[in-house]
Amino acid sequence: MPILRLFIILAIQVLIINHIHLCGYITPLLIGYVIIGARKGTSHVLLLLFGFLTGFLFDVFSNTAGMAAASMTLLAMVLPLLIRLYAPRDSDDLFMPTIISIGMFRYWTYSLLCMFVLHAMFYVLDAFSLHDWQLTLLSIAGSSLFASVLCVIAELLIRKRCG
Amino acid sequence: MWGGLFDFLFKYKHWLVFILLEAVSLVGLFSTGGYQKSVYFTTANSVVGSAYSTISSITSYLNLVSVNRELETENEKLRIENVNLRSRLRLANTDTMALNSQLNDYNIVVAQVVNFTLHKSANLMTINKGRADGIKPEMGVVCSRGVVGVVYLTSEHYAIVIPLLNVNCRISCSLRSSECFGTLEWKRGNTRSTYATGFPRHSKIRKGEIMETNGYSDIFPPGIPIGKVGCINNSEDGMSYRIRVDLFANFETLRDVGIITDYIHQERRDLEQSVEETEEK
After folding, report:
1. Residue B281: in which H helix or E strand, if any?
2. B-chain residues within 8 Å CB-CB of A45?
3. Where residue B43 falls among pLDDT bands split at 50, 70, 90?
4. Which residues of A touch B44 (CB under 8 A)?
5. How confident is the model over B47-63, as a mean pLDDT?
6. Is B26 an interface residue toward A (CB < 8 Å)?
7. Inter-chain residue contact B28 with A65, CB threshold 8 Å
8. According to the CATH classification, is domain B101-264 in 3.40.50.2020?
9. Which residues of chain A does B48 touch, with a Cβ-Cβ cutoff of 8 Å?
10. Which residues in chain A have their CB less than 8 angstroms from residue B9's CB?
11. H helices within chain B, ranges in order?
12. d(CA A64, CA A56)
């Protein structure tokens, strides 16, 4: 199931979202969505490998040469921390941060945080200088915001379908 | 000593994996600076792409026979669907005979003209709906543009209509702009126009005015257009006007007609008939 979701989201990302350039600098990375719904007890190493693989696949199809792989790996690294931040104190290892388990608004802030980590790394690597740092910041902020909204929409669609 | 190291490594294995993966990513990123190096990484795309196109060209070649068959059946289906849709479109078009809003209040049975003569003086038209569809003699027949004629005879599934282009056809008509009324009479020959007689001399008639049914008979509801006033002449006895009416309905290409099935008022008909009977006595 996560593999299927990975390929669907990768296809949407590569075929559609990669061609969106809002205001010329906002291009969200929806691929982050495939790992932010991980269970609290998921092995950290597995998460890292899965994140790297997703990023790598994105790189291959978007000619971004390791940027997304590095960003997704970073996101996978901090993800358990973020999940623990949003998980209830008494939750078990099977806890998943979803729109149902933590509510719409909290899910949105959670995905915004995740997307911020992802896009920060991605756009910093993309610019790789402080020369145009305002634009980089705008890209990071705008894309994170956009991507988090997309995450909420995707979550709504998926949870609705699953009942 | 070694055990401690392994414990340490195991405990922080995710850090090791993280550093390793980041290193791989960044090496990938920074080693693709030049053109030669970037080709190496971007060919991943073209490798995938060419692999896909090769596979698809092979499978498409193998599938050509079944594809061809599918296309043929689909073609056939589309052809049938096309015919169906065309006929439905025609029905829909005639069904929406929005002559005016008055017609919407009546029940209209849509029929197709199956036989029609134009060259005789008593032209008749056969339509493909009959008693089984509720068609009765003396019902009004209209088309999308205006009046066509009156039902004359019915069989189970067909009906014969006396069109306006029949010297025996008499339909009461009036001008849209005035109360004056007359009768439509056709003269053999011209299939695009008929004549309206009996308009009093004092009536003001202008060319281009619309002639319509007036509801004096129980065949047509009032207000259904018939044609436009073409030219105005005196009648033979000089007591009234004789108006050429250019018909809206194009009888040469007429195919779809509608029969107004619920305008006949039996009560009115009975009453008028009883008057006639008492007069005869």
Report:
1. none
2. 13-14, 17
3. very low
4. 60
5. 59
6. yes
7. yes
8. no
9. 60-61
10. none
11. 2-11, 13-30, 35-62, 64-95, 266-280
12. 9
Q: How does pLDDT run across A91-138, given as a tens digit for each residue? A: 888 888 888 888 889 999 999 999 999 999 988 887 777 767 888 888
Q: Are B225 and B165 in contact (CB under 8 A)?
A: no
Specify the residue for token string 């610019």: A127
For B60-108, what is each residue's pLDDT tens digit? 677 677 777 778 788 878 877 887 788 778 766 654 445 545 566 677 8
pTM of the model: 0.46
- Give how far B54 is from chain A: nearest CA, Å: 18
- Please, which residues 170-189 of chain B have a Cβ atom closer than 8 Å to chain A? none
Q: Among residues B273, B258, B278, B276, which one has the least CA distance to residue B129? A: B258
Mutation for B interface: A59, A67, A81, most B CBs within 10 A = A59
Residues of B in contact with A125 (CB under 8 A): 29
| B35 Cβ under 8 Å from any chain A Cβ | no
- Interchain pair A60, B32: CB under 8 A: no
What are the residue boundaries of the structural domains of chain B, listed by start? Answer: 101-264
- pLDDT, one tens digit per residue, over A10-51 is 888 877 787 777 776 788 889 999 888 888 888 889 999 999
Q: Which of B265, B250, B152 is nearest to B215 (CA)?
A: B265
- Among A52, A63, A77, the residue with its CB nearest the CB of B42 is A63
| pLDDT surpasses 70 at A77 | yes
| B29 touching chain A per CB within 8 A | yes
Rounded to two decimals, the ipTM of the complex is 0.82
Q: How far apart are CA A115 and CA A110, in angstroms?
A: 9
A143 pLDDT higher than 50:
yes
Alpha-carbon distance of B97 to B99, in angstroms, equals 5
Query: Mean pLDDT over residues B9-36, rounded?
Result: 77
Shortest distance, CA A160 to any CA of chain B (angstroms): 34
d(CA B195, CA B243): 5
DSSP assignment string, A21-51: -BTTTB---GGGHHHHT--TTS-HHHHHHHH
Domain range list for chain A = 2-85+98-161
For the record, the structure tokens of B201 come out as 């001399």
